[in-house]
Every structure is written in structure tokens, then in C-alpha cells.
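Researcher: Quick one. two chains, 542 residues in total.
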Amino acid sequence: MAGVKDAALGFFDSGVGGLTVVRAVQDLLPGEDVIYLGDTARLPYGSKSPETIRQFAEEDVNFLLSKGVKAIVVACNTATAHALPKFWENCPVPIMGVIEPGVEAVLADESAERIGIIATRGTIQSHAYQHALATRKRGLMIHGIATPLLVPLIEEDWISEEVTKEVINKYLDPLVAKGIDTLMLACTHYPLLMPVLDEILPGDVRLVDSATTCAERLKEMLEGTDLLNAKGGNGKLEIYLTDLSEQFEELAKRFLRRPTGKVRRAVLSAS
Amino acid sequence: MAGVKDAALGFFDSGVGGLTVVRAVQDLLPGEDVIYLGDTARLPYGSKSPETIRQFAEEDVNFLLSKGVKAIVVACNTATAHALPKFWENCPVPIMGVIEPGVEAVLADESAERIGIIATRGTIQSHAYQHALATRKRGLMIHGIATPLLVPLIEEDWISEEVTKEVINKYLDPLVAKGIDTLMLACTHYPLLMPVLDEILPGDVRLVDSATTCAERLKEMLEGTDLLNAKGGNGKLEIYLTDLSEQFEELAKRFLRRPTGKVRRAVLSAS
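Model:
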């Protein structure tokens, strides 16, 4: 008999960047089915106000709940920063975000002291990362900067272009000047920039993203709530986007690094 | 007695760029009241699919109709390109877009032969400008390119930065190589880039935007439908945005080049 353990995991993001988290989860928990929602019709979330982000995130969660998911991952930094505390109060299934795992990944290296954070304007202005880091460890130097041009550059597929390097340099120069030892990529899009960041940054700056740690924390959450699916590999993946276009389907493949299967259109409704 | 001539004109855009059109209309028709809607919660429209753009535009039009406007200007190139033909069939008040005026502004110089068009991906892919130009005059050379990074650069206020020039050069080099004599700025955001474009482009390339011609065509439309408000200056302006933020209010002032008054939040509903 199919029980709640067999239900799918739900993920959502403003776009397709959250598929970097799905990829890490599929690697660690290959037996789990996954339902992914990308709100491509209204992306980006990062430049919008906290109230609007919370409203959109609530509609995203309701969509996933309507699909019968057993747990939810907010695979979007901006939505985690502004909406997760609200969901903890009233979501009927376990729900987690990407910020706590990101902070944990940063602090996994005990020598980390001078932390740079790059993210959307919404995430930076929420101070969620700065706050989570500062409460975990005393004496950290934390420098967060909003880098709103990086998502459009990635979506334009200009990752290897000279201007992308210049934009990154312009954003990061002040962080490098402050002698950061760690750079947190606090947006699910940014892992695609790893090769460029590696080339640009001094060799002793550690680059951190939250996908792998997020998968590990999800596994713990499922174990703790007795929801882990014990069956072997071959979990199914269903991707829903609120706006379908060739460009998003292409990007989805790049983030997932494997075929996406048929992508469906989702229609959300206000709660 | 207040009649329909005293009702306001309605304008909408995905964001605040359409205020460049409002400014031109206020200069030409200072007695008209204006209600402006910017769908900042879901911007940009330019990267999304035709179906989604049409659905958003329909909700925008319904909002303006609910405010009792006497006529509507689609002050957004992407929405004009994909949704205007639909509205012509069933909008209960006169409605016009920015593309026909833009094309007219291009062809006002009879020597124009090699036309470059820069716009969002949605506008370029619609072929609306290319089609409108080609049906007006035979033998034109028309080159449209999508320049999706320009809106984020303008919104980041990096207009005078070196990287912005490099992005523009990268986009425009192929057009310049084709020997264009005219460049159509087919997005209401782009007039803010005029100083940079002037500096970058060869001196004999004419830059065209649609705002002034759009105001003239609107005046004709109001005269033709007996809706022109004959009273003198001091028309009121009401601005509604679907997402309020300091950043959008700042941008609105830059596009309007005058104080915006109190900006209100609009809540749209599906039709």
C-alpha cells in the first residue's frame, strides 16, 4: 500500500535556479519522487518587496500542497529570507529553506572569518544570512552585497563573456579589498558562475553554495519525521513552470545537468 | 456636469518605463487626467511567453477599466506586440499601443532605409515592428535584436558605467556593421540610455523613440472619438504599481522627470 513516505518532495523557486538543489537531492536520495515548481511568469522575486514575495511564495506552497507533497523545500533564497518564518507557523507538512544549510556550509570550515555574501537585493536587504551567521558564531566579519545583474547575465547565457567578468569584478572588488576568505553564493542561479568566479577571485577565497548541504539537511529532516522513502533509485521528477518558453526549458537542463522530461504549465491561484 | 471627456486616460506598462510616454502626453495635453498602472510585481514582460503576456495585459486593462478611464494607451512595447490585436476586438474604450507611433516616427525621415531595432526578446520575437515597418514601406533593410540586459542595467542605475557601454557595444556592433541609418529604441526604458547611445553610435545614426509621436497620435485618437478634454492645464496623475518599493518610486521619478505624487498599490484580478 502506498503510504505518505511514497509521496513526492515539493520544491519551488522563482525560476529554474532551484533545480541545482533538486540535482543535489537526486544524487543523495535517488528513490524520492520530486515535484518542482518554478514561478517563471513572475520572476525575478529578488527585486520585489517583502509583502509581494510572501504572497507569491504562499501561492507556490499551496500549489505544491495541492499536489500532495510530503515535505517542501523553499529552493529560493529570496523566498526563504522573507517567507519561511511565516510557513513554519502554519504549513501542514515539514518545510525547510536554503539559508540555514548555506550558513552551515560556510561555517563547516572553522577558519572562516571574513564572509562575503552575494545575492539578490531582496535577500541582502532581508539580512537573513547576516543574521543567521552572526547568531551562529561570534566575531565574524560579514559583508553582503546585492548583485542583481548576475541573474540576467546567466539567463542571457553570457557566462564566458568579458563583460560578465567586468560586472563581477565591479561587484566583488570591494569584497576582495576587505580580505574575505569565503564567498557565499546566496542565490540558486549563481553556481553556474563557479568557473568565472574561480578565475577572478584570489585563490584563497573559498566559494560556497548551499545545494549539497541542503540535500543533507533534507535527508535528516525526512529521517526525523519518519518520511524518508526507503525504496531504491529511479525517483520521478515532474517540473511545473508558470510560464513555459524554450529559453526556460533550455536553462532548466543546464541547471539540472540532465534531461528534464516533459515540462508542464502550472496555474496558481491566490490563497 | 462631468462627462466622459472629463474621465482620465489610462496607461499601463510592465514597470515604470511607460512614464516616458505619460510625460510626453502631459506636455501635449496638460488638461487630461492620467491613471498609470505599472505591473512591477511581475515585471519584466519581455522575457515571458506570448500567452502569459496576453494574460497579464488583460488583467492590466481590466484594472484601468475598473477605474473608469475613457481611453487606454498600452505604454509597453512587449504588451503592444502580443496583446493589442486582441484588445482591438473587444475593448469597450478606444485603445492604442506604442508600436504604430514608433514606426511612424522612424519613417518620418524619408531617407531612413536601414533600420535597427533594439527591444526585449518578446518584442523582437513577435516581429511586430519588423512587420509594421515592412508593410509601410518597401525595400527597407530591417535588423531587430533582443537586448535583454539593458533594462536590468538601467534599473541598477549603471547608465554611466563602463560595463554598460561594453554591453551596448556588444549588442550594437553587428547593427553598426550593417550600416544602419536609424536605431529604434523599441522599449520604453531605453530613452534613459540616449546620452550613452549618442556617445557610442556613429554621428549619422538617428535615434528614435516613440513617446512624442505616441502623444500626437493619442491626441488625434481623442479628437476623432470626441473624447478630448478641452479644459486647460493641471490634469491629475495617479500612479498605481502592483509592487511598491523605494527603488521603483525612485525610478518612476527619473522616467517622469517630475514628482510622482503618492504612489498606490494595485491589486489585479484574473478576468
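The first helix of chain B runs from residue 19 to 28.
Researcher: Thanks, that's what I needed.
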